[in-house]
Write a structure and sequence with these properties.
The chain is mainly beta and about 350 residues long. It is built from three helices and 29 strands. Strands 11-12-13-14-29-23-22-17-20 form a nine-stranded antiparallel β-sheet. Strands 1-2-3-4-5 form a five-stranded antiparallel β-sheet, with no helix packed on it. It has a five-stranded antiparallel β-sheet with strand order 19-18-21-24-27, with no helix packed on it.
């Protein structure tokens, strides 16, 4: 595993930000910033052997700092939404930032994605780590959190999360990379399979209503491969409310998802131990410049965010999102690239 570094700008307080490049023995590359443990690029071969960057990203630190959309970032403490930014835990009421309509999203105004993490090399890659102090972004407990990123196989990028806390706290960690397996254009011709028989119904603010619905006979049925463009503009409420896909699928098998682009021939297989995956077709991505002269717009990428269910803190019958004091949270997600 080869690791290279280069400066990537400076925070307003003078903290330097570094870009790390991980190169696998076969030449696959991943660029990760210590700012937000942000995946800037993933470079893998297409069907013809040409290298393609399949992750959206920016050229400058300020674009990451000042743009919305969590481009490539590690989000937390709680990825996705919490209703009204409120929850009660162990008899104590907490109020978090309301930064997405009436709800709390991706950890708040700052979250994990807008902080510079510590970094150390591991045997196979990099370990990003930080202490999230008690009360940070309104969450209880002092939390030690880390994300290890490595090429687990010739062309499989693996993310391993770990966290401990001294007080009970909600926790939901994911990565928010926007994938485009053609490296350019939109993702309407991408084909997706998701191992889920049910999904969480959402309201007009993309918050779960609490109802778990069957995918059968709906635009949410990805049990067999479906072209995203065929149903991303469906009039079905589960799609139309969000202007495309932005829903949590309740995983029931492995792999969690398979994404294919017939133009490049690149296939991405997603495996994880998390109970859900949020499929998001960049419905709210406004027109903006991207890296290397690219222009991004609506549906330029698709996110496959492996995670606990959104707003799980208010649904005790769902898989628990609470990390208890003294316990250790561990999780993995692997993106394996191949060609068809």
């Amino acid at each position: 595993m080869a690791i290279e570094t280069r400066p990537f700008g400076m925070m307003p307080d003078g903290t330097a930000v570094t870009l790390y490049t991980l190169t696998s023995p076969t030449g696959c590359k991943a660029e990760i910033l210590d700012y937000g443990v942000t995946i800037r690029s993933i470079i893998v071969p297409d069907r013809a052997g040409n290298l393609v960057d399949v992750a959206l990203g920016y050229d400058t630190l300020d674009e990451y700092r000042l743009s919305e959309g969590s481009m490539g970032a590690t989000v937390g403490r709680f990825a996705n939404r919490i209703a009204r930014g409120q929850f009660t835990l162990n008899g104590v009421d907490y109020q978090l930032a309301v930064n997405n309509g009436p709800n709390h999203l991706h950890g708040g105004e700052v979250g994990f994605e807008r902080r510079v993490w510590n970094v150390e090399e591991t045997a196979n890659g990099l370990r990003f780590f930080r202490l999230s102090p008690d009360g940070e972004d309104g969450y209880p407990g002092s939390m030690q959190v880390s994300v290890e990123i490595a090429w687990a196989e010739d062309c499989a990028l693996e993310l391993r999360y770990r966290a401990t806390t001294d007080r009970d706290t909600p926790l939901n960690l994911t990565n928010h990379t926007y994938f485009n397996l053609n490296g350019q254009g939109d993702i309407l011709n991408h084909r997706l399979t998701v191992a889920a028989e049910t999904f969480l119904e959402g309201d007009d603010d993309c918050l779960p209503t609490g109802r778990i619905l069957s995918v059968a006979g709906t635009a949410m049925d990805f049990r067999t491969e479906r072209v995203l463009g065929a149903s991303v503009d469906s009039d079905e409420p589960c799609v139309k409310r969000s202007g495309g896909y932005d829903s949590n699928f309740n995983l029931c098998n492995s792999p969690a998802a398979v994404l294919r682009a017939l133009e490049s021939g690149i296939v991405m297989t997603v495996t994880t131990d998390q109970p859900g995956v949020q499929v998001y077709t960049a419905n709210f991505l406004t027109r903006r410049p991207g890296k290397n002269g690219a222009t991004y717009d609506l549906r330029s990428g698709v996110c496959l965010e492996t995670q606990h269910y959104p707003d799980a803190i208010h649904h005790p019958d769902w898989p628990s999102c609470v990390l208890r004091a003294g316990d250790t949270f561990t999780s993995f997600t692997r993106f394996t690239f191949s060609v068809c």
